[in-house]
Amino acid sequence: MIELERLTKNYGDTRAVANVTLQIPDGQVTVLIGPSGCGKTTLLRLINRLVRPSSGRILINGKDNSDFKPEELRRGIGYAIQGVGLFPHWTVYENIATVPKLLGWDRQRIRQRVMELLDLIGLDATEFSDRYPAELSGGQAQRVGVARALAADPPVLLMDEPFGAVDPLTRIRLQNQFLNIQDEVKKTVIFVTHDLEEAIRLADCLAIMNAGEIVQYNTPEEVLAQPKNKFVHDFVGTDRALKRLTRFMVKDYLKQGLTVKESDIGRLDTNDERFYWVIDSLDRFRGWVDLSMVPPGGDASGEIVKPGSDIVLTGDDTMRQALSIMLGQGVRSLPVVDKNGKFVGEVTLADIEKATADGKITAA
Ligand SMILES: Nc1ncnc2c1ncn2[C@@H]1O[C@H](COP(=O)(O)OP(=O)(O)OP(=O)(O)O)[C@@H](O)[C@H]1O
């Protein structure tokens, strides 16, 4: 557990962190969020002693962080920052190996760890080990940054806007991947962001900061349901019920749906008004056919609708994304596929209503 006790940091007249007392639980993701300049980065840097406090202290498993030797802090606390901070003249391999090398690990152990991490972040070792940062996409570079922070297997990981510099789609992918990795490694993560959706999505505990202070510290559900004061209320915004959908994954609301093979559409009984997802012989999603649009007794073969790939969901998408697509496309259900494009089920507007009701809050 990390305990912050009446922690204050002043820069001249600026009080960057003001008398913060906070207990950060092990194995969970605590997200710090608040307006620009509220002290998030300073708070993070106080924890790994890149910044010294003006007063107060930080206990890591009961020990004052000023009593740790530098290499103990390096081993115990990983740090990933926005824009990644990879060394440009070092390869991916060398970048990930930085801290293990500093810690004096032998070559064999370093090699094994780098391979493990490349596998964990989903980059092929043969293809990526020898590349330089300039030869990576933004998302790949961010992942290497996370791998580097995890290299010495630190129990604590500090992440400062780690997904800040990538496009929104890549950002969501990185968030998904982060959640999957965290599921496996269960680190104590302290994550700084100014993106509320990202915070709601990733946080087990959410700390809302303003002017150096922690204004509210609770689960995202509680913060959204019961903003403590006007500042938090305004900060989380008026569409709290919708924001909460960000916490729900499509895979948890997936239903089977009715399917028909493309080759069998002509045999459907068009006297009923059912809606079918159309799949090919390998169960890949092809489109849909809505029998309520086909005259009774008619042939449905020509009625298949083949939409663009932007309406297809995967289990790792959020119900908030599902809702945006439904509203944008004017449809009440969406197909869900696995990573090979195989149809695995559907989510419907009714499921979204259910998810909103699960949140036990109404739209404000
Ligand atoms: N090294 C420094 N010297 C002087 N003032 C500083 C220093 N670092 C931070 N500050 C000030 O402390 C306050 C908190 O800064 P900090 O970077 O912690 O905020 P933040 O919440 O991370 O902001 P942002 O979201 O914009 O990154 C700001 O007013 C900032 O100008």
UniProtKB/TrEMBL annotation:
<keyword id="KW-0813">Transport</keyword>
<feature type="domain" description="CBS">
    <location>
        <begin position="305"/>
        <end position="362"/>
    </location>
</feature>
<dbReference type="InterPro" id="IPR003593">
    <property type="entry name" value="AAA+_ATPase"/>
</dbReference>
<keyword id="KW-0067">ATP-binding</keyword>
<dbReference type="InterPro" id="IPR027417">
    <property type="entry name" value="P-loop_NTPase"/>
</dbReference>
<dbReference type="InterPro" id="IPR017871">
    <property type="entry name" value="ABC_transporter-like_CS"/>
</dbReference>
<keyword id="KW-0129">CBS domain</keyword>
<dbReference type="InterPro" id="IPR003439">
    <property type="entry name" value="ABC_transporter-like_ATP-bd"/>
</dbReference>
<dbReference type="InterPro" id="IPR046342">
    <property type="entry name" value="CBS_dom_sf"/>
</dbReference>
<comment type="similarity">
    <text>Belongs to the ABC transporter superfamily.</text>
</comment>
<dbReference type="GO" id="GO:0015418">
    <property type="term" value="F:ABC-type quaternary ammonium compound transporting activity"/>
</dbReference>
<feature type="domain" description="ABC transporter">
    <location>
        <begin position="2"/>
        <end position="236"/>
    </location>
</feature>
<dbReference type="Pfam" id="PF00005">
    <property type="entry name" value="ABC_tran"/>
</dbReference>
<dbReference type="InterPro" id="IPR000644">
    <property type="entry name" value="CBS_dom"/>
</dbReference>
<dbReference type="GO" id="GO:0005524">
    <property type="term" value="F:ATP binding"/>
</dbReference>
<keyword id="KW-0547">Nucleotide-binding</keyword>
<dbReference type="GO" id="GO:0016887">
    <property type="term" value="F:ATP hydrolysis activity"/>
</dbReference>
<dbReference type="Pfam" id="PF00571">
    <property type="entry name" value="CBS"/>
</dbReference>
<protein>
    <recommendedName>
        <fullName>ABC-type quaternary amine transporter</fullName>
        <ecNumber>7.6.2.9</ecNumber>
    </recommendedName>
</protein>
